[in-house]
Specification:
The complex is a heterotrimer of chains A (276), B (376) and C (290).
Chain A (H helix, E strand, L loop, with lengths): L23 H27 E2 L2 E2 L2 H8 L1 H35 L4 H6 L3 H4 L2 H11 L11 H11 L1 H15 L1 H10 L4 H30 L2 H6 L7 H11 L1 H28 L6
Antiparallel strand pairs in A: 1-2
Chain B lengths: L3 E10 L2 E11 L4 E5 L6 H9 L6 E6 L2 E2 L10 E4 L11 H11 L4 H14 L15 H14 L4 E5 L7 H18 L3 E5 L2 H7 L2 E6 L2 E6 L1 H6 L4 H6 L4 E8 L2 E5 L12 E4 L11 E6 L5 E4 L10 E12 L3 E8 L2 E8 L11 E6 L5 E4 L13
Parallel strand pairs in B: 3-8, 3-9, 6-7, 7-8
Antiparallel strand pairs in B: 1-2, 1-4, 4-5, 9-10, 11-12, 11-14, 12-13, 14-20, 15-19, 16-17, 16-19, 17-18
Helix pairs in contact in B: 2-3, 2-4, 3-4
Chain C lengths: L10 H4 L1 H31 L1 E2 L2 E2 L2 H6 L2 H34 L6 H12 L2 H11 L4 H8 L14 H26 L2 H9 L4 H30 L2 H7 L6 H10 L6 H33 L1
Antiparallel strand pairs in C: 1-2
Helix pairs in contact in C: 2-13, 4-8, 4-10, 5-8, 6-11, 8-10, 9-10, 10-13, 12-13
Classes of the chains: A mainly alpha (276), B alpha+beta (376), C mainly alpha (290).
Chain lengths: 276, 376, 290
């Protein structure tokens, strides 16, 4: 559950220091070691999910995907993800733009937000939220509303990083002033000038948020538990009575993460340099 | 015996030839500039001498030793980079001391040498500062001191001034020249700035496409360019297309065909040269060599070349104003002193006059120039 | 009677700060309601026992299993931060300077660094658990790791699991620094006569060190605050702070929110320190590298 997006290809095309070619064996060993370390557990997942009593079978895949609970819980996660994206990104985009425009002193403070989840990890936030929102005037525990609120806070850094990158590249101040001088109202400027400029950042941020929410376990466990089962909770529960299903689902989660990462790379590549 | 020499050095990167069978000999104690547009191979030459690149063919000699295969750290050459090459975690003094530390020079001696170097580059008392506390010009001074501290056999400067502000650049380049002469250290200076190269070098190597285009003293390069490339690369140069004839160069001059001058061309007197009759040539004249005459000016001295044209534009350049004059179907630039610029306005018909000695004639085209044909 | 012309001054022009403040209100309220106030209440709660204000929660966390949990968590986090830090740094240098340029590895690394949690725990169980494929492979080769006392539900198992995301995370954190390392630093050192060893000792490592320390601090925080992976891997078998908190809050027998609050506050303090280290190191790295 970390906060690093795949890095865009380096913007500096300056020559890099070269390693002595005598080290090639160690370089290769290190890189292959990493690839192996990251792929071996996946092989474990695959192997576990296709074997039944020593025979190869796709039975578990058929059964796991035939379970109506799977669709319900994945749907729950997706719904929470979409709500979070809407909330976090609209809030971040607007606030950041506003800060750029009118309160630049706020920017360094906002930047600290991106370190927030390291200081207040999901466990701590869960502990804090569960107690506030379990007493009557605010009894939200167990409702998706609380979960979305919590997710909106934890995913702020994703949204912040992605949108900030786009805003910085788009030179919003000049664009806004140009639009203002042409007589546009600021609301119109935001929707018609700024938003299209930061769109790639907003989409990247949205993908990261979605990827996070689809894999988030701790907050879901703490705040909603069984009353609003999410996909990771489902994977975890499956393990105790049908481990093969949970392996299938774990694989699915890996595939989803891959998909998101791949889409991010595609988006980053497609964005013209002038807008980065 | 030259001090540093490159013999038939070739460098290829994949399919592209960066340096093409190049010969160059540098004498001890001289400052030679490698001048050319980006991608002409000048930096590659420097990097081969420093040992960062290995020549694909040919050899590099220091004295009579072939150093082509010697690793960089045993060549004992000081190098100054474009910018930001100072180690950011070391103070200026520590940076300067680095080469001495590598050589296990005793502490006291090291300290003394660092002070000496700081004094030399005019940074006494700034030894304890970190690079990020120094200005760009100061950083480059430290880089120079660092390169000199090891008493290098050759000093290699890779566009060391290109990242600096104009004023600092001017100051530092004079400083580099002063120190170079004071230590009489053999120096190779790579730059794309012609003014820089002309002002501080003993000799200039003009490079183009991996080859030496012209090699000579700054005066040679400026006053007697041997190729159209050098002529157009160094300073502002008018190029008048024409045809070589026995009695001079025939150029088109179709601006004003009139009753008393029906022909649309002129014969220009130039420096003597021997080209095949009727071959296409180009006449080179610098804007500052042109005298501009209004129509009511006194008749000119015979023997002067004359072209008439229409002033198309005027640019104020400070001490002079540069007129763009339409002559025939080409434009020529001519400088007039600023005090006279009011006399010449766009739309006016003028005469351009210039001395035959100030015209150089070069053949047109990309065919290799026959060496030694040009006479002064 | 002609009324004197009044200059048209809009409210928003006269009081620009009102609009500025209004625009920031939504974010402010959101953070206040879902982060700041709950955390403050958590801190207050940690100082309260049944009889009112008290340090009893904290005192309870400093002895017995809770103290051990704190120490184990610190140890494991430090260990994986250093292990992942060294491996990640070396890999980043190889990727940035070596022949393997391109975006496949960074993409794979970002997937691995983001994936963590429950699925990772199960993948590890399927690999080096009792019936994992590596376990079986090794025992077919005559090396039965479980007979020698290894189990995936142990601290060693957890370290191996955390390395799965720590290593690629460090790679991603160090890659920009390795890419910004200037060739001219290396070439200057070389031209001044430095050998490869001298270059690394006096130039390469010192310049990369702030980025490494900053990255390792984030890795430490990342491992310290991780809950899902450990919980899914071994549940109560692992004695970690986050696991303890989970049982104090969700468990039937251990239920004790006050203690959970105190542990969370202690976690926040440790993590805060790690992030301060990161900030300081990162600032220095930025000053050197831009």
């Amino acid at each position: 559950m970390t906060l690093v997006a795949p890095t865009a290809p380096p913007s500096v095309s300056s020559p890099r220091p070269r390693l002595q070619s005598g080290l090639w064996f160690w370089q290769l060993a290190l890189v292959l070691g990493l690839v192996a370390y990251l792929l071996i557990p996946i092989v474990g997942l695959i192997r576990f999910s296709v074997r039944s009593g020593g025979e190869l079978t796709l039975q578990f895949y058929q059964e796991a995907f035939a379970d109506p609970d799977f669709y319900r819980f994945l749907g729950n996660s997706l719904w929470a993800g979409l709500c979070t994206i809407l909330l976090t990104l609209s809030l971040t985009t607007f606030t950041l733009y506003w800060a750029y425009l009118r309160a630049r002193w706020l920017l360094p403070l906002l930047e600290l937000i991106s370190l927030l989840p390291f200081v207040v990890p999901a466990v701590t936030l869960g502990v804090a939220l569960i107690q506030v929102f379990s007493t009557p005037p605010l009894a939200l525990t167990g409702t998706p509303l609380l979960l979305v609120g919590a997710y909106a806070v934890v995913t702020l850094p994703f949204a912040y990083r992605a949108v900030e990158n786009s805003l910085q590249g788009a030179n919003v101040l000049t664009l806004t002033e140009a639009a203002e001088s042409l007589g546009a109202s600021w609301w119109r400027i935001f929707l018609e000038v700024i938003l299209p400029c930061v769109w790639p950042g907003v989409i990247s941020g949205g993908l990261l948020v979605l990827s996070y929410v689809l894999g988030e376990f701790t907050l879901a466990l703490f705040l909603v538990g069984s009353s609003y089962q999410t996909f990771p909770l489902y994977i975890s529960q499956l393990f105790s009575y049908q481990p093969q299903y949970s392996m299938v689902m774990s694989l699915l989660s890996f595939v989803i993460t891959w998909l998101v990462a791949w889409l991010l790379v595609v988006i980053t590549r497609r964005v013209p340099n002038s807008m980065q | 015996m030259s001090y540093l020499s490159l013999q038939a050095v070739q460098k290829t990167f994949g399919q592209t030839i960066a340096v093409h069978r190049l010969n160059l000999a540098i004498q001890a104690g001289e400052l030679v500039s490698l001048l050319g547009p980006s991608g002409c191979g000048k930096t590659t030459i420097l990097r081969m001498i420093a040992g960062f690149e290995r020549p694909s063919e040919g050899s590099i000699f220091l004295g009579d030793t072939d150093i082509s295969l010697l690793p960089t750290n045993r060549r004992n050459m000081g190098m100054m980079f474009q910018s930001y090459s100072l180690f950011p975690h070391m103070t200026a003094a520590q940076n300067i001391a680095f080469g001495l530390r590598v050589r296990n020079v005793p502490q006291a001696q090291k300290f003394e040498r660092v002070q000496e170097m700081l004094d030399l580059v005019g940074l006494s008392g700034m030894g304890q500062r970190f690079p990020h506390q120094l200005s760009g010009g100061q950083q480059q001074r430290v880089a120079l001191a660092r390169a000199l501290a090891i008493a290098p056999k050759v000093l290699l400067l890779d566009e060391p001034l290109s990242a600096l502000d104009a004023q600092v650049r001017l100051q530092l380049r004079n400083e580099i020249r002063r120190i170079q002469q004071q230590l009489s250290i053999t120096t190779l200076f790579v730059t794309h700035d012609q003014e820089e190269a002309l002002s501080i070098s003993d000799r200039v190597v003009v490079m183009s496409q991996g080859q030496i285009d012209q090699l000579g003293s700054p005066e040679d390069i400026y006053l007697r360019p041997q190729t159209p490339f050098t002529a157009s690369f160094i300073g502002a140069m008018n190029q008048i297309p024409g045809t070589w004839r026995q009695e001079g160069v025939w150029v088109t001059d179709s601006f004003e065909p009139s009753a008393d001058r029906p022909q649309t061309g002129r014969l220009l007197q130039t420096q003597t040269a021997e080209w095949p009759e009727g071959s296409a040539v180009v006449v080179l004249v610098r804007p500052e060599s042109m005298t501009v005459l209004a129509q009511d000016d006194a008749a000119v001295t015979p023997g002067l070349n004359l072209l008439s044209g229409l002033i198309a534009g005027r640019t104020f350049l400070g001490s002079v104003s540069r007129l763009s004059v339409l002559v025939g179907d080409y434009y020529l630039n001519a400088d007039v002193p600023t005090s006279q610029q009011e006399r010449f306005a766009p739309g006016q018909v003028v005469q351009l006059s210039f001395l035959p000695e100030q015209c150089r004639v070069l053949p047109v085209g990309d065919e290799p120039r026959p060496a030694g044909v040009l006479t002064q | 009677m002609t009324p004197t012309a009044k200059p048209i001054v809009s409210f928003w022009v006269r009081y620009p700060w009102v609009a500025t403040a209004l625009g920031l209100v939504p974010m402010f309220l959101g953070l206040l309601g879902f982060l700041v106030l709950p955390v403050i209440l958590m801190v207050i709660g940690s100082f309260q026992a049944e009889q009112g204000w008290s340090l009893s929660n904290y005192l309870a966390t400093w002895r017995g299993e809770y103290l051990r949990a704190l120490l184990t968590t610190v140890q494991i986090s430090l260990f994986t931060a250093v292990l992942g830090g060294v491996l990640g740094t070396l890999t980043a240098i190889v990727l940035a300077w070596g022949p393997f340029q391109g975006s496949f590895l960074p993409t794979l690394a970002s997937v691995a660094a983001n994936w963590g949690g429950v699925p990772l725990a199960f993948a590890v169980i399927a690999t080096i658990g009792n019936a994992g494929w590596i376990t079986e492979l090794l025992s077919n080769l005559g090396w039965d790791i479980y007979a020698q006392g290894f189990t995936v539900y142990s601290n060693l198992g957890l370290i191996l699991t955390y390395t799965y995301f720590q290593w690629p995370l460090m790679l991603l954190l160090m890659l920009p620094a390795a890419q910004r390392f200037r060739v001219s630093w290396r070439e200057a050192a070389e031209s001044l006569g430095a050998t490869r060893w001298q270059f690394w000792r006096w130039v390469g490592i010192p310049i990369l060190l702030p980025s490494m320390i900053g990255g390792a601090a984030l890795l430490f925080a990342n491992a310290f605050g991780a809950q899902a992976t450990a919980f899914a891997l071994a549940g109560g078998a692992l004695n970690l702070v986050t696991i303890k908190i989970t049982f104090l809050l969700k468990g039937q027998t251990d239920f004790n929110p006050g203690l959970a609050n105190a542990l969370s506050v202690e976690m926040t303090v440790v993590l805060g320190l790690a992030v301060v280290v990161y900030q300081i190191a990162n600032q220095r790295a930025r000053r050197w590298m831009n």
